[in-house]
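Are you able to produce any protein sequence you like plus the matching backbone structure tokens because I've never seen that pairing?
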Amino acid sequence: MRLPRPRGALTEALFAELLQPPHELPAALTRGDAAAPERFGGALHHEDLQLALYACYELHYSGFDGVRAAWEWEPSLLALRRRLETALDAALREAVHPMPEAAAAQVPRTLADMAGGTGDGPSLPAFLQRRATMGQFREFVAHRSVYHLKEADPHTWAIPRTRGRVKAALVEIQADEYGGGRAECMHAELFRVTMRGLGLDDSYGAHVERAPAITLAVNNAMSLFGLHRARLGALLGHLAAFEMTSSLPNRAYSMGLRRLGAGSAARRFYDEHVQADAVHEQIAAHDMCGGFAAQHPEQAGEVLFGAAVCLALDRLFADHVLAHWERGETSLRAGAAAVPA
């Protein structure tokens, strides 16, 4: 994966540094105004912030061509990342305010209520099922490829941090995501089949260049929770909400592709999630999050916060995509290789 083109002064300066051997970043980046959290108003839609943070996080996954692996733990880069995370975290808390409250024993029920309350407003799954053109569906898949080509990886950070019933539930969910040991059944690989079936480049990170800030924010929130052990409750809550709101939308996506003439191979990714996530929903709410809240009752609020973030970002992403499509515009960023119409 190549470094994307910069989207502002911050990423221009940061990427120039990352292409050099690892070294201490200039103070202008780590302590100056360039990355001051208060600069990033509207952080969830701030292109420069979200791309910079995505790049920092990607060093903990597959990295970038020409960027040495040793940058991953360079203290000055971690200091910069922490400043950017402060802006992201503040924006996430604003996006989910006010938060539902629940005692530890009520976490599974509260999660179910939160997941069941996502039907208000325009529905992106319904649009894709009934109205989307093939070009629009390809755009949607390009957006989602930023996550689905490393599907499950951000949440897998939780495995060594959990114990007992919670770990067993989490591993059961993640094992399905990774195909139960069969490479061709890994959900990331199934998504590649979908991409190829729609005529899209299926290489890792191929569509980051055109992914807008809100798409990157969806991914950055997962990495924020996954890479910080202190955010374990939020990470588990995020995964639970993700699983609990997946089955019906994926059915709609599959039906939309069928309407557009896509074959069964291209639809298999979505069909697989209709079945798998219906099972995961109960495991995630009760065994994983319910079990975690029972072990750590003081973390019940963090579990609900993570779930609320997942649902809020999904709504903001849908709003972005649908608003552009209703205006007859692309929902992706202009200036890079176009997604086929």
Notes: The mean pLDDT is 95. The two ends are 24 Å apart (CA to CA). The domain at 104-326 is CATH 1.20.910.10 (Heme Oxygenase; Chain A).
